[in-house]
Amino acid sequence: MPRLAILTAILLLSSLRSSRGQLQVGFYAGLCPRAEDIVRTVVTGAFLNNPSVAPALLRLHFHDCIVDGCDGSILVRTPAGQQENRAFGHQGLRGQSIIDDAKAQLELECPGVVSCADIVALAARDSVVLSNGPFYLVETGRRDGFVSSVVDASVVPEVSDPIEVLLIKFAQKGLTAQDLVVLTAIYCRPGFVLAAAHTIGTTACFFMTGRLYNFQGTRRPDPSINPMFLGTLQAICPPGGNGNVRLAIDNGSGQFFDAQFFSNIRAGFAVLQSDAALYSHPATRPFVDFYAVDPASFAQDFALAMVKLGRIQRVTAGHVRRVCSSVV
Ligand code: HEM
Question: Would the pTM of this model clear 0.85, i.e. be above it?
Fold first, then answer.
């Protein structure tokens, strides 16, 4: 075969590989060398201005990936309002404007190259690191999806889902019971300021109503709530009160990064029903116990689970949106 034909075949094969198949660390190294720096700079600026953007960006990545893979569909806004982020389980999502800012800068630097889905994945990692959580390498090369539908969002885990349903919803995405505990719970490293998932966030009272006043249709509170804690929660979220009032998800440790979350779950001080449920099932309970006494293992397991989360239904065929809020 002539040399030119061989070279063409090699180039074709390698472009097929990157456009169809694989996520890879450093995907933008040749295409847009400053891509990861630009995202990090934008996220850092936002974080210094308001540290609560860190949990928001982490949650955004989870919610993007759990519905049809990490394809940026969570960012879409349509006039008809039937897009994915209108689903109940997605309520309270924040941080989209930070992704928009990063995207605008990336479009100036290398137009049409860096996908919105990858920006979300990188921003989540940068948020974890800024919160003194573990650094991990983010695989990139995702493409943005063309579809963003509220109907598809029924797979989103909800606070009122029984633990069996949460396990199934995670398993359907290739995530294990351990991933459920690790991703949902916390990264424990005593003495450091906040990190992952439910240790650093807040929730609105409307996610609490069922648990506080009509748990599983019983018209009574969730019996797993410690009686000493129930009054506090009911005072913050009274029946018929303002559903938008917010409270820290990890009672007592607030913005701090410690083992409090696991102790809280074990003692009946979990705020979200889905967090309390982690201690009610033989598949998840041992992991809560494990991380409560061995917080050091969490950093590694959390980082591994985040990489796994970013691989859900790899979307490497699609397009790169110019504006993250629009599918076109
Ligand atoms: C078991 C499945 C899960 C359920 C049912 C669930 C539910 C919720 C709910 C109801 C909130 C409060 C939202 C609000 O009121 O604004 C929340 C917040 C949050 N969730 Fe989850 N979640 C789950 C798993 C995860 C996972 C796997 C992650 C990360 C990898 C995550 C990260 C967060 C973060 C960081 C916040 C705080 C967001 C903020 O402060 O804006 N969650 N979650």
Answer: yes
